[in-house]
Every structure is written in C-alpha cells, then in structure tokens.
Amino acid sequence: MPSPADQRGLLGLARSSAIAGGAVVANGLLSAAVLAVCAAMGQTAQIAAYTVVTSALAFVQIGLAGGSAMLYLNGTEPQRALVRAQWTLVVVPGLLLGAVAVGAFYAGRGYDPSALAAAGVVALGNALAQLQIADFTRRMRFLANALLQCGSKAASLLLVVAGVPLTVALAVAGLAQLAAGELVLGKDGSLRRQIFPRYSMLRDVAAAYRAGGPLFGYAAGDLYVARAGTVALSLVAGPAVMGSFGAVAAAYQAIGGVVQSALQVPMIARARARLGIGYSHHPAWFAVAVALACAVPMAAVVSVLAPVLTRTVLSLPHPGAAGWLALFMLALPFMAVTRALLFDWIGDAHYGRATRAFALLAAVLTVCVAVGVPAFGAAGAAEATAAAEALTLAVLLVARARRV
C-alpha cells in the first residue's frame, strides 16, 4: 500500500499527464480550426506551401539532430550542453540551408515563394520550440507549457480570421511563443545559452553525436513506423484511396500523440529521480496504467464513432475509411503500452534498449506491410500497424518477464 506521500505523488503525476495530454488535444483542435478557416477563405496555396516545407524539413531535422531533443530532455547537464552546441553549429544552420533549398525547389514548381519562405520560418521555430518544450517538461511545468502552445495557436487563428496569410500567421505566433517562453524560463532558457559559438564547441558537437547515437536510431525508427504503411500503400494505390487513407492515418497519429504526451510525465519523473533533481517513487506499472487509461477509452469511442467521423466530420469519400480507422484504433492500446515501456527505459537512460525495441517494431512492421498492403490495400496497411504493435508488445512483455 503506497504511503500518503506516495499517493499524493501519484495523483500529481496523473494530473500532469492529464494536462499534457489535454494540451495536445486542445492544440490539435485549434490547428484543425486554423486549417478549416484557411480552406474556407481560399488559402489552399498557403496550406500547400506549409505542408511541403514542414514535411521536407522534418526529414532534414531527423538527419541533423537525430534524437538530440530526447537527450536534451532526459540527459545530464553536460549532455544537455553538448546538445545546445550541436544545435548552434549544425542543426539550426542546416535547417536554414534546408529551408532555402526546399523553398527554391518548390518555387520552381509553382508554389508561392513568400509562402514558402514564411513556412521555412515556421519549421525552424517548431524545431527550436522542441528544446524549449523540453526545458518546461524537465521542470515539470506542464501547465505553463500548455498555455504557451495553445495561446500561440489561438493567436494564429485570430490572425488568420483577420485575413493574415496562414504561413505568416503561424510564423508570427510561433516566434512570439519562443520569446514568451524564454521570458518565463529566465536565464536558463535553451535559446539564451551559447548563442555565440566557441572553438571548443566543435568538439562538443562530435561528443553530442556520440552521446545521442542510440536515440538517433530511436528517432529514425519512430519516423519509419509512422510513415512506412502510408509510403508502401502509395506505391500500389491511387490518389483517391491515398487522400482518404492519409486523413485516417493522420487522425491515428494525432490520437497517438495525445497518449505519448501523457506518457512523457512518468518518463521525465524517472529521469529527474535518476539525476537527483526530483523525487519520484511511482511503481513500474504506473506508466502502463496511464497508457491504458488514455488509449482504451479513446480507441473504444473513436471505433464506435468511426462512420460518423469519416463521413460527416472528415467528409472522406472512400467507403472503407471507417473500417480503416477502426483497425487503427485496434492498434492504439498496444502502441500505448509499448511506448510506456520504451519511455520508462529512456527515463532510466537505457537508450540502447529502447532503440533496439523500436528496431524490432520496425522490422515486424516491414514484414506485416509487405504481406498486408499488396493483398488488402489500405485495409492491409491498417491491419499491418495493429499486428506489428501487438506482436512487438508480446515480445517485449516476454523479454521483460524473463529479465525480472
């Protein structure tokens, strides 16, 4: 039986998990509102520029930064200093060059150059915000972080309603969020440290890549698992199917993002206890309980409402969209428990173990996609996700039981 102090600690972690997950829901709803208003106002060129630039630079960021944002959140103070050097000398300049290259490429394909430039600013701001969000999370300041993120998105919505182009509105609101966040964090904010490079930082960059090597594999695996089914389906399906499937897959990723945001709370609590900057005496099952408490109700509700969501809310033309969404919801509880185990390992600094688990998931998903997509198309891609998550979780639980 937990002591009264431990019970209060568990309630505090549960409350923080609810705040973190709720912030993602609110931010997602505001983002949907922004896009809906832009579409109604005819800003389709702005939406297109935002989509292509942010998607392309996401891959650039993975290549340059890898899992450094996760290391910045969970690592020691010397490791966090290495990450700041890495971002100062490599990641930020690389993203700037990437934004110029991507903008030039798509400008040649008929996209609005000013929208592409503003979208590049948005992508760079989003990248820098990852370190700032990590600073708030490491300090367990989830409410302040939620208010900043949702306030920024609400401000962009107001700007769009006032007639400001989408990319400009997001850029202005994002930069204002960064400035406000630095004011709240004070002198310890990530953007205030090591603004001017030092010679010794060149050695720090190499050390940062060595320290974050295992988490680079984790980040790459995360991106692969999120995109593999969609990319494989695009090789055999036409635009009509891909339009509907893409919306369903995006909805699954968004719902999964809510779960993973809630799971960051017990993860950072374990990291703080390990680093001696906080106390957390929650049992090993707590993260799994958070995962199931978030995932099971959402999966059940979305599965029941899938026909309404796909036909009425999303207005998807393909008749199989509701079934695809239900299959993705079947995967959600398995995904949630798997990520709970992985996040606990990361919180305990077992980065290699978490990366190997993601490599296993990627390998199993590859086999399932190779079998399911050619045979069943879009339904096969959704089934592959559910099967891969379930099989990987079974393997991890057996390995965990043997280790104990």
Describe the structure in brief.
Keywords: Membrane, Transmembrane, Transmembrane helix. The chain has 404 residues and is mostly helical.
Write a structural description.
The protein is mainly α. The protein folds into two domains: 1-211, no CATH class; 213-404, no CATH class. Helix content is 84%, strand content 0%. It has 14 helices and no strands. It has helices at 4-40, 44-65, 68-74, 77-107, 113-138, 142-161, 166-185, 200-211, 213-234, 239-275, 286-313, 321-347, 351-376, 378-403. α6 (142-161) packs antiparallel against α7 (166-185) and α9 (213-234) runs antiparallel to α14. The longest helix is centred in the N-terminal third of the chain and has 37 residues, at 4-40. It is globular and about 50 Å long. The relative contact order is 0.11.
- What structural category do the secondary elements indicate? mainly alpha
Rg on CA atoms, Å: 21 Å
- Provide the number of structural domains: 2
**What's the shape?**
globular
* Main beta sheet: none
Oligomer: single chain
The N- and C-terminal alpha carbons lie at a distance of 21 Å
Enumerate how many helices there are, as a single number.
14
Features:
mainly alpha; 404 residues; 0% strand; 14 helices; globular
List the helices and strands and how they pair.
Layout: H1 4-40, H2 44-65, H3 68-74, H4 77-107, H5 113-138, H6 142-161, H7 166-185, H8 200-211, H9 213-234, H10 239-275, H11 286-313, H12 321-347, H13 351-376, H14 378-403
